[in-house]
Amino acid sequence: MTQEALPLYLGGALVQGSDTLDVINPATDQKVGAIIAAAPDHVDAALKAAEDAFPSWSTLSGAQRADWMDKLREAIAVKAEHLKQLVHLEMGKPMGGATEDFEMLLHSLEFYAGEARNLKSGTLPDPAGTHTHEIIKEPVGVVGAFLAWNFPLLNLAYKLGPTLAAGCPIIIKPSAKTPLSTYAVGAICAEIGLPAGVVNVIGGDDVAIGNQISSSPIPAMLTLIGSTQTGVHVMKTGATSIKRYSMELGGNAPVLVFEDADLDLAADIITALKFGNSGQICVAPNRVYADASISVALSDKILERAKAVKVGFAEDEGDEAIGMGPLIDHGSLRRIEALIADAVGGGASVLTGGGSPEGIDKGAFLEPTVLTGVTNDMTIASDEVFGPVINLMQVEADEEAMIAAANNTEAGLTAYIFTQDAERANRLSRALRFGEIQINGVKYDISLPHGGLKQSGIGVDCSHLALDDYFATKRISTAISG
Fold this sequence. Notes:
Aldehyde Dehydrogenase, Chain A, domain 1; 7-stranded mixed β-sheet; alpha/beta; 6-stranded mixed β-sheet; Aldehyde Dehydrogenase, Chain A, domain 2; about 20% strand
């Protein structure tokens, strides 16, 4: 992997600068690349470029914007192996995970290009019959987008697709931890000659750059994938002008498993989501509440699967047998180790894992971990773990008690239910205060809305509904003469 710093992409050009930022592979603790870090004048230039691009980009037809999106998708597809390798290296994630990350970018551009081609105006009836009323969806303006590090290209996909389709120029700030793949997409935008200022990619100091974008009056909208705390900060710094917000924020997903559940299915899904991407997934199960009659059987099945996960990193094309890579950095590793220690100090027990994998002496690796005897008042249950730790919770068998325990969180992103009783599933899904309820399975797709309740976000990512966040509604009423 080249050590030459990747350039910024702003105003339609690749731009160099004097400051650089190294990117470290958390699996090897080695540098795998570097980026040009944006200085304040670069941020100002990106904001101005996006502002200047808005009049022309927003007035193109949806079909014209879709043509550009198709061109970008085709160029990205040509660079598939390079982009997947960048994600593999900057996150240390297995190549299978890097591939899923990459493919979502293609799916998003394809899906939203189709949406752009089908944009239509609407009308409203006039009860008095004196006017006609046309409803037009108009792009809101410049968008500032802040991406999380856990899925570098997937998170980019969730923002790039709808902004391009809606006609909104975008300033993208990838996480300083995983900027390489997003910078590479910026270079592809330059390669195809995307109109200047429509997409801008600037990275570096996350806080300084984020604050400069948020506090500027130029963005009409700020969109974020990150923690609830970061969302609150962005809204505070963005209060220099009236702005829209679309945010997918932290989760603390409960899993409710009842006596009639398919326990193999439940164990498969719980462990796949919790150990995939090393548990660094906003929708990963954090708290497992099982009926007492099946709790031991479910625990045994989860343990069996946890112990079978192969942890590691392959420098080349990836070992398909590896199921889990490292955490994003050593700070994250220390934080989760402290959460485990706190839970054990409070009476929880470690059934498996809890430390560094045997035979691995570098990188931010943590074994797949299962705790039992966890209570809702423990920090590991009240906070989002964002790591490969499954908490088997103490809970009464009563359905109402399980609902109350599951809802006992400020987060409200995703909840999981396993039962064969359709009436119970329907009852629970309406009682649980989460934006997504997954019953006896899990399904995510670019065509399905993804968003949370309570402190887990504003607006949605994915689906045609995401476009509503990037459009303003204009009414044109015309008096009927005669």
